[in-house]
Amino acid sequence: MDYYYSLISPPCQSAILLAKKLGITLNLKKTNVHDPVERDALTKLNPQHTIPTLVDNGHVVWESYAIVLYLVETYAKDDTLYPKDPKVRSVVNQRLFFDIGTLYKRIIDVIHLVMKKEQPSDEQMEKLKGALDLLEQFVTERAYAAADHLTVADICLLGTVTALNWLKHDLEPFPHIRAWLERVRAEMPDYEEFSKQVADDTLAYVASRK
Ligand SMILES: N[C@@H](CCC(=O)N[C@@H](CS)C(=O)NCC(=O)O)C(=O)O
Predict the structure, then answer these.
(1) Is 90 a catalytic residue?
(2) Helices (H) and strands (E) in the chain, counts
(3) Can you give the residue range of the structural domain that contains 37?
(4) With a 6 A CB cut-off, is 64 part of the ligand 1 pocket?
(5) Is residue 210 part of a domain?
(6) CA of 107 to the centre of ligand 1 (A)
(7) Per-residue pLDDT in tens (0 to 9) along the chain, 210 residues
(8) Which parts of the sequence belong to the GST N-terminal domain (predicted)?
(9) What is the CA radius of gyration of the chain?
(10) 37 CA from centroid of ligand 1 (Å)
(11) Does the pTM of the predicted model rise above 0.85?
(12) Residue 51 CA: which ligand 1 atom is closest?
């Protein structure tokens, strides 16, 4: 399976972490969407030219959560990571949609401003805090984001919350998120090595923009 990605992109991280958890191998194709040649090649597969993009035996999937759900539904040996019970699954789905539509959106909006050396408004920072308050509530009610065990919601939210590193955002006011982060990281195979690679690629990217 070819996986077009960049480690510094939070949406690209989820499927890599999930693949390790599932014990499957992705053929990693590091992609720079700002390079016209690489972008043209990607556009031939995915007209939206976004990373991540997955190609499994000719079948093309993009949108990170669509990729995560495709992988878990195709390759997981049981339904632990994406429970089949409709009520449990609805909570997992709610967390995923909350992430992509609210939490990640509010974080990335602020990151984009900071990268342009612009100051986010108080309202934007308040909205970001509001989304983190909700996550804090979710992981106070349960040990994991959507169930009493690890699911794909935790794996996707992990990349989102880790993106706060770009903002050097203080998680001190969110003790349950911090405890949840530790719990989830401990269940990700080779997480330390993965996290180091993300940090290295991020530093290289930041240096290349100076
Ligand atoms: N909602 C999408 C977002 C993907 C996305 O915007 N990726 C960025 C990199 S973080 C990208 O490929 N941008 C290039 C472009 O939009 O042309 C997902 O979760 O996969």
Answers:
(1) no
(2) 9, 4
(3) 2-76
(4) yes
(5) no
(6) 14
(7) 999 999 999 999 999 999 999 999 999 999 999 999 999 999 999 999 999 999 999 999 999 999 999 999 999 999 999 999 999 999 999 999 999 999 999 999 999 999 899 999 999 999 999 999 999 999 999 999 999 999 999 999 999 999 998 888 889 999 999 999 999 999 999 999 999 999 999 889 888 877
(8) 1-79
(9) 17
(10) 17
(11) yes
(12) 12
